[in-house]
Amino acid sequence: MKKIDFEAHFFTNEYVKALYDNKGYPRYVEDPKTGRRRCLYAENVYESHGDVLLDKLLDHSTGRLKLMDDAGVDVQVLSLSAPGVERFDAAKGTALARSTNDELSQIIKKHPDRFLGFCALAPQDPDSAVAELERAVKELGMIGWKTHSNFGDTYLDDPLYRPVLKKAEELDVPIYLHPSAPAISQLWTYGFALAGAPFGFGLETSMCMMRMILGGVFDDCPNLKIMLGHYGEALPFQIERVNFPWDRPWFEAELRPELKRVPGEVLKENMYVTTSGNNFQPAFQCTYDA
Q1: Please, are residues 93 and 122 in contact by the beta-carbon 8 Å criterion?
Q2: Three-state SS for 30?
């Protein structure tokens, strides 16, 4: 059986420089006391990006291939690691997306039997993002778009981004919805332990998916494919519960969005999940059964 890693990340040197140069969030900073590099998402929300991690993200060849071989991974689907280009201003993000996709295309060409790619987009400029998605798929051979759970103060359900989603549906390519630091400030209180990978990342991503469902995205794009990691960020556990407003006959109709399908149906029909590091057997069993 071929093993394909759908959530394998990379960096480019240009992207690293952009994180250092950025004056807002996200950005790279050096801890004055320890000298350690940190990726700062908000005032007190950051994660360490030491040389060992950064070197691996920047290694697109020998070292990465050896790690893949050691782990028995046949193919990696490469995508630009968080925080992504979506948090830069539209002009900077658009330029970074294009150059990142060009570089990723060259990486794949060198090892076409080992690498595939999810493109980067800056959806804050929807027209440019639509054009870049089409270029990335049709000219560069990308298999989809990997994006993040929020764009600072907006989510993918915002009508501004609907043209990009419709283009993904038209091209029949999936969108990999990847976690990022939450936009909800109450999740920042205890730093990365609450806001990051242990909890906040998953919460933010599942909320984004639910916003898309309740916002009518899948009425407009009924064949859109969304991929979520970590066994669907706990959404398989919620498949029946999210139908609550439609299942209870006493629930007032005006209190629920008017949708063509109930949320649980959308989750079963439009959401694909990957393991991406979640090795908890009960989580697998719940996802499999759901």
Answers
A1: yes
A2: strand
Q: Find the mean pLDDT for residues 120-142.
A: 98
What mean pLDDT value characterizes the chain?
95
Q: Report the Cα 255 to chain-centroid distance in Å.
A: 30
DSSP 44-86: TEEEE--HHHHHHHH--SHHHHHHHHHHT--EEEEEEPTT-ST
Query: For the chain, where are the alpha helices, taking DSSP H only?
Result: 13-21, 51-58, 62-71, 90-110, 126-138, 162-171, 192-195, 200-214, 217-220, 229-233, 244-247, 263-270, 281-289
Is residue 226 a contact partner of residue 174, using CB atoms and an 8 Å limit?
A: yes
For residues 174 and 178, give the distance between their C-alpha atoms in angstroms, rounded to a whole number. Answer: 12
197-234, pLDDT tens digit by residue? 999 999 999 999 999 999 999 999 999 999 999 999 99
Alpha carbon distance 124, 244 (integer Å): 33
Q: Please, what is the Cα angle at 196 between 185 and 68, to 5 degrees?
A: 155
DSSP characters for 233-260?
Answer: HTGGGGTTGGGHHHH-TTS-GGGS---S
Instruction: Name residue, tokens 């950025």.
Output: 22
